[in-house]
UniProtKB/TrEMBL annotation:
It comes from Azospirillum doebereinerae. One of its GO terms (molecular function) is DNA binding. It comes from the Bacteria. This is Sigma-70 family RNA polymerase sigma factor. The keyword NADP does not apply. The lineage of its organism: Bacteria, Pseudomonadati, Pseudomonadota, Alphaproteobacteria, Rhodospirillales.
Length: 183
């Protein structure tokens, strides 16, 4: 049974005191969910397990930094896993993350089709459709991944294997062009 948000705070406090049972309770309740989150980002189970292992080391050594006033314990733990997964994707030394550089291969095929279908479902006479169509493909896909697919800039950067700043610039310039076109 997964630990509830309120139940993780005391376990983090136990970790901060050096009580390994606190870490075990967190692991028993959250590891499956955390692996699923990491796997969604890195797209490989073995790497997701590595991410979660590293995250639990971080949780153990940094539990004293958690403060309930800044958010839930579950959110704090999830952020550590998510950040570890994104760092792994951005690490240029990991050439084996993807076999193909094409965007379609980097995204879950169903997710990619849903993202692109949302654009194609727009009314043929829609100003938004015309304006999105006028953008270059990179900017259009970045905007659709962010605003339709719900990917963060970091996730998009990791999946496209480009620097985070580049991704942010593509999306920012694409949104500027989209606003100008829609005006």
């Amino acid at each position: 049974m997964q630990a509830q948000m309120d139940d993780l705070g005391p376990d983090l406090a136990a970790c901060a005191r050096g009580d390994r049972n606190g870490l075990k309770r967190i692991f028993d309740g959250e590891a499956g969910r955390l692996i699923a989150i990491a796997e969604r980002i890195v797209r490989r189970r073995d790497l997701a397990e590595e991410v979660v292992q590293e995250a639990f080391l971080r949780i153990w050594t940094s539990a004293h930094q958690y403060t309930p006033e800044r958010g839930s314990a579950r959110g704090w733990i999830t952020a550590i896993v998510r950040n570890r997964a994104l760092n792994l994707l951005r690490d240029g030394k990991r050439e084996d993350l993807v076999a193909d550089d094409r965007l379609e291969a980097l995204l879950d095929t169903d997710q990619f089709e849903k993202i692109m279908a949302s654009w194609h479902r727009l009314d043929q006479d829609s100003r938004l459709r015309d304006c999105l169509g006028a953008l270059d493909e990179t900017k259009r896909r970045g905007i659709l991944m962010a605003y339709v697919g719900g990917y963060s800039h970091g996730e998009i950067a990791g999946r496209l294997r480009v620097p985070l700043g580049t991704t942010k610039s593509w999306i920012r310039r694409g949104l500027t062009a989209l606003r100008e076109c829609m005006a």
